Amino acid sequence: MDNLWIWLVAAVVVIAAIAGIAFGVRASRSKSAEVEAPAGEPQVEAPKAAEPKAEAAKPAAPAVEVPEPVEGRLVRLRSRLARSNNALGKGLLALLASDKLDDDVWDEVEETLLTADVGIADTTAVVESLRERVKVLGTRDPEELRRLLKAELTAVLEPELDRSIATVSPSGEGPAVILMVGVNGSGKTTTCGRVARVLIAEDKTVLMGAADTFRAAAAEQLETWGSRVGAKVVRRDAGADPASVAFDAVKAGAEEGADVVLIDTAGRLQNKAGLMDELGKVKRVVEKQGPVAETLLVLDATTGQNGLQQAKVFGEVCDVTGIVLTKLDGSAKGGIVIAVQRQLGVPVKLVGLGEGPDDLAPFEVGAFVDAIVDGAES
Ligand SMILES: Nc1nc2c(ncn2[C@@H]2O[C@H](COP(=O)(O)OP(=O)(O)O)[C@@H](O)[C@H]2O)c(=O)[nH]1
Ligand SMILES: [Mg+2]
Fold it and tell me: Has this prediction a pTM greater than 0.90?
């Protein structure tokens, strides 16, 4: 019995010793692994060392993104345009395909156009002309009617207008200054960024001025775009005089030999006199250094008649040379393009069809009409 006890104790001691040795070996192995890893296992170390490097490089040299080509952008974004304006094209074609094209049908055609925000003058013009041509040609062929409808819509959109964005100063000297105006939330800052992105891709140097000094966030938003696209931004603290920021931006642009200076302005529309004072001053101050090349009015397409009212006020306050119609992707009323152009007598030059950096397209009458009449396909 005694012997058995001795053996048992001995066995426990031996087992404990073996376990202890094993644990010790493991512990020292993992310790040595910790210590040795950097030298002995470079493949493990590599990503560790690379990570902080990549992080450190980020703020210093952000990667400048390259945009998608501008040519054919409207065609690429066609499905968004067609989706949002389905009611217009499909509705009109369905009506024109009616068994009898009587007064009631023509009244409905008129109503469809008015509902799509086309505006009374152009609606009347389109309907009268279409009616006349259908009568003269005596046609009931759907393809022929589609062609006639497209021709009428094209005509009221005035395809002959110059829709290019000026990138050369009218004086021939210094940067081309582009003022971005419009009410808050219409998409001015976004448009500055997206236009800069395209110009930079065309090898132009662009500087942006944050003349919306009413909110600190506005200048930050512009700076974010600036670092993303590779454009320098001139800004001051919130509350600074917008005109002097604009002046500084144009001055810096001239000194640095920038091709284009984009001025992002504030759009408080509390009263016309205030707006006139503010934008008038920005323009006057900028023009001490040379004429403004372009004043782009940014309008939110989803605001409909309200947008037209804004267009009227801005048109009276500043010399608008082009319209940027944003958020056309969210509007079921593509007719606003026709109405706003008519209202101001200046062309729609760019359209926004989403929030992405490449969702701004040059406005092309043909592609637009095809999209709203034919829909997403063909
Ligand atoms: N869906 C859509 N959103 C847009 C478009 N353009 C701008 N936005 C959005 O509208 C909001 C206001 O834009 P912002 O540039 O800050 O307007 P600002 O106050 O005039 O400078 C932002 O959330 C933009 O992303 C567009 O074409 N489509
Ligand atoms: Mg803004």
Answer: no
